[in-house]
């Protein structure tokens, strides 16, 4: 039998196969890195807003409670963004002529809501519900970070499936008394971790939470 492949062709084939294998590994690493990167998770990104609304100023500085503006958060799926007349309870008297508030005045005059750019959003195929989390005492800060320190609103957590599941499989240590959910710096129990742990364990029973079922697909994909 004559030799079909020369020796050098064989070497070239091996080299080519090695390259394909390396490229495959590279692609896996690249996709993995992408999923972790802030580009995919959008953590820390701010968007151009029609009005540079500052939670740092209104929450951190003035001490306004989340529920004053996000009124539906305890009772519905959505927390909702505040309608313009909520801003005007103060800004019809304060900073009335400020150019930065012109879009707020326009919105009130025309009845068209301010076109806020969303920073915390899930894909449509995921079901989320604020009311149940608030009712069980999962604090805003756990999912939205230190909003009270944000001059412009940014996303604080990845909102990926794994992040949801990490808590659903072990929610006990994250629970607070529900009347403390909007507090950003709740530290009363920091010196007593055992008290917090005990509270969490107790409330899992009181609410009848079943972590083993909270990661079923149809909890979030309905
Ligand atoms: C309870 C009162 C109150 C409400 C409600 C309120 N603001 Fe303000 N806002 C203030 C005060 C007070 C200042 C001025 C703070 C200062 O000058 O130190 C301010 C300042 C601002 C500024 C100037 C930039 C800054 O942060 O200093 C913007 C923009 C603004 N508010 C937007 C809004 C929007 C939009 C809403 C509605 C979603 C809103 N505010 C609701 C009290 C309020
Ligand atoms: C004075 C009214 C006001 C108060 C009080 C307030 N917010 Fe907001 N919030 C807004 C407005 C207006 C927006 C839309 C503009 C923006 O993203 O900054 C917003 C946006 C947000 C967003 C981003 C939503 C999205 O998808 O774009 C989150 C998360 C949020 N607020 C959480 C909170 C939390 C948590 C608190 C309490 C610690 C709070 N807010 C208190 C007015 C308020
Ligand atoms: C368990 C995590 C979690 C907790 C706790 C939580 N949020 Fe959210 N929040 C989310 C997610 C996820 C979204 C995006 C929802 C979507 O796009 O369907 C969101 C969206 C929002 C929005 C945008 C408007 C909307 O309804 O989609 C606001 C405002 C907001 N949250 C405020 C709050 C406030 C205020 C609290 C505390 C009282 C709070 N959230 C507690 C996870 C949470
Ligand atoms: C820090 C903890 C925590 C995080 C993060 C969290 N959850 Fe939850 N979730 C809970 C708890 C506690 C409950 C209440 C379970 C119960 O009462 O049985 C719950 C309940 C739910 C329910 C209602 C289940 C039912 O039986 O009606 C849905 C839907 C849900 N979560 C979706 C999500 C999604 C989607 C995310 C991520 C974007 C998420 N959750 C992130 C703690 C969390
Ligand atoms: C606690 C809520 C929750 C549960 C339970 C859950 N998912 Fe998801 N899932 C999510 C969220 C949030 C996303 C969106 C992730 C993103 O945008 O990066 C997602 C995305 C997905 C996607 C799209 C691809 C991806 O990974 O981003 C698939 C497929 C999926 N889930 C399948 C499942 C299956 C199968 C189960 C059951 C074994 C399941 N999910 C259980 C919250 C959940």
From TrEMBL:
Hey, what's the signal peptide range on this chain? Answer: none
- Key word Cell inner membrane present in the record? no
InterPro entries with a match to the protein in the record: Cyt_c7-like, Multihaem_cyt_sf
Instruction: Keyword check for Nucleus, yes or no.
Output: no
Domain Cytochrome c7-like positions: 126-222
Going by the UniProt record, its keywords in alphabetical order are: Membrane, Transmembrane, Transmembrane helix
Query: Where do the TM regions start and end?
Result: 12-35
Organism's domain of life?
Answer: Bacteria
Which PANTHER family does the UniProt entry name for this protein?
CYTOCHROME C7-LIKE DOMAIN-CONTAINING PROTEIN, LIPOPROTEIN CYTOCHROME C
What's the protein here called?
A: Chaperone protein HtpG
**Which species does the entry assign this protein to?**
Tistrella mobilis (strain KA081020-065)
